[in-house]
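Thanks for the sequence, V.! I ran PH domain-containing protein right away. Repeating your input here for the record:
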Amino acid sequence: MAAYIFKETQQFRQVWIWAILLGVTGLSIWALFWGNPTKPSNGWEKALPLLILFLVNGLFLSLKLIIKIDQNTLRFSYFPFVSEKKYKFDDIISMELIEYNSLFKYGGWGIRYNFDSWAYNVRGNHGIMVKTLKRKFLLGTQKPEEARRAIEQFKNYKLQSYGS
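Predicted structure:
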């Protein structure tokens, strides 16, 4: 088992997201059961919206960004959409800690693309920008100082492997 020099797990736990999500869920349930009492309905007319509400709430509960960096590998996953991706340091051209505005640069949070790079983030304004020969992507982080130390380790690895 690898000794990780950086490990972070993030989930959507922002109060404002859950206030909106639970507010919409509550209003929807109210409208389904008490909103229009004069209209008769069968069970299916209520079951499908309830199923959709359950799935959306379950999705937000299960979304999880996991980032791991060990001595010579970067791994990340964004459950349930992106299974673990593994990049050896030899395959990475550069890694740097950046400060960014997700709303303006990527149009929000989650899994995003802006025609330049992919972003995998949950919240905040710090990220690890990774460039390989084939891809460029950003991994959002809530631990910028720990990420900075891991990036320094990456840079030292590259110096030892290829010289300055």
